[in-house]
């Protein structure tokens, strides 16, 4: 899930004052906080969540430390969009948005992150590391393996953080950025400070994972299933998903490295687990909170308990290029799957800035 920084004033699941409700026949749409003109933007068909249940087929490719499983849609020579999921989610967060982008001529790549789905480590000896720079380098390696020089990067949760890092440190690989919840690059020193008790409460699983009880729960298939379902229900309070939708994603958590990756990610953020020295230089750069200069649309899901107040103001200064912020009324944490049309619209728009 997302970074703790900037969440000290989070008030829980209440409706944000800055969000605008634009309810149409297909449900909530985007509220534009800072409208701007976008050239020759095509109309995007409105698709209700759940219109698709599967991707046409999955592929595998060796990339860096991994054999990466990914979905690919759209023309092979189209402009590339890479969509990145978070936890506890998988590529199905984009099962409705990806076809919309493919229909607009984009080559859409949706990879399973390390520890999820069909992505596997090439070596059993590789440390199951989930620090932020290692995951970002996975995506750079994937782009290299697929011979993709530059792409629009779009993500939420772990995916936003990963896309933010690539945009900040390797802007030559990022044509434009869509980042749900804004600037999520982790600063471990800041994460040592307590935040408001109500905000801490939303992070219950992070502290659970800091214990051996939490680790054992993630390793137990039944407990892991029920824990992740509880997170879904809590952070997407208005999303009326069915059991089959959750089960399609839950299958990705049967990856043999899932528990190790998730536990290390959250412990590393709290400085309870070490990373690897080979990433120290990158982490020092990220600790400076580097600016992001590429064209960016940030999306705030109004009903996500992790959404900070202020309609994007808490992270606005980190984005120095062309920029627009949008708040999606009535939408929870899994924004691409809950509001696929609005997410696809943001990708298409930012590509035309």
Topology record:
Layout: E1 23-24, E2 27-28, E3 30-32, E4 58-63, E5 66-73, E6 80-84, H1 97-103, E7 107-111, E8 120-121, H2 132-145, E9 151-155, H3 158-169, E10 174-180, H4 197-202, H5 204-209, H6 212-219, H7 221-235, H8 243-250, H9 258-269, H10 280-287, E11 296-301, E12 323-328, H11 335-338, H12 340-350
Enumerate the spans where pLDDT stays under 50 for 5 or more consecutive residues.
3-35
- pLDDT averaged residue by residue: 90
Total helices: the number is 12
How is the biggest beta sheet arranged? 10 strands, mixed
**Large-scale geometry:** globular
The helix/strand order is EEEEEEHEEHEHEHHHHHHHEEHH
Give the end-to-end Cα distance, rounded to a whole number of Å. Answer: 29 Å
Based on secondary structure, the structural category is alpha/beta
Helix share of residues? 25-40%
Q: What is the alpha-carbon Rg in Å?
A: 18 Å
The count of β-strands is: 12
In terms of DSSP E residues, the strand content is 15-25%
